[in-house]
Amino acid sequence: MSANGSQHPPRPRIEIAQSAASPEEAAAIAAAIEQFLRETAPVPAAEPPAQSPWLEAALLEGTGREPGQGAPWGTLAGA
């Protein structure tokens, strides 16, 4: 199966460059950045819709098959 279009960029590593912040402040900054990344992340893709029973019947009829014989292109959704 191809990975074309399903690749994701690597997650950035959060580091505080200057040590002017206390450990508590640094943890609060890192938590705020983590929350920002979660809230602005893209919505996961929805599942593709199931194949229409009418389309399935038309495909089987077009290839001269009966519903119980199976399809020449593999299994059908819901079959």
Give the key terms.
79 residues; 34% helix; single chain; 2 domains; mainly alpha; rod-shaped
What does this entry look like structurally?
There is one protein chain. Helix content is 34%, strand content 0%. The relative contact order is 0.09. The mean pLDDT is 76. The radius of gyration is 25 Å and the shape is rod-shaped. With 79 residues, the chain is mainly α. It folds into two domains: 32 residues; 30 residues, no CATH class. It starts with 22 loop residues before the first helix and ends in a 17-residue tail after the last helix.
Secondary structure topology:
Blueprint: H1 23-39, H2 53-62
How do you describe this structure in short?
This protein has helices spanning about 25-40, 55-60. By secondary structure, the protein is mainly alpha-helical.
Q: Can you count the helices?
A: 2
Task: Please give the alpha-carbon distance between the first and last residues.
Answer: 22 Å
Q: What order do the helices and strands follow?
A: HH
Rough outline: rod-shaped
Major beta sheet summary: none
Q: pLDDT below 50 for ≥5 consecutive residues: which ranges?
A: none
Total beta strands: 0
The average pLDDT is 76
Strand content bin? under 5%
| Total individual domains | 2
Query: Which secondary-structure class do the elements indicate?
Result: mainly alpha
Helix content: 25-40%
Kindly report the oligomeric state of this protein.
single chain
* Rg computed from alpha carbons, rounded to a whole number of angstroms: 25 Å
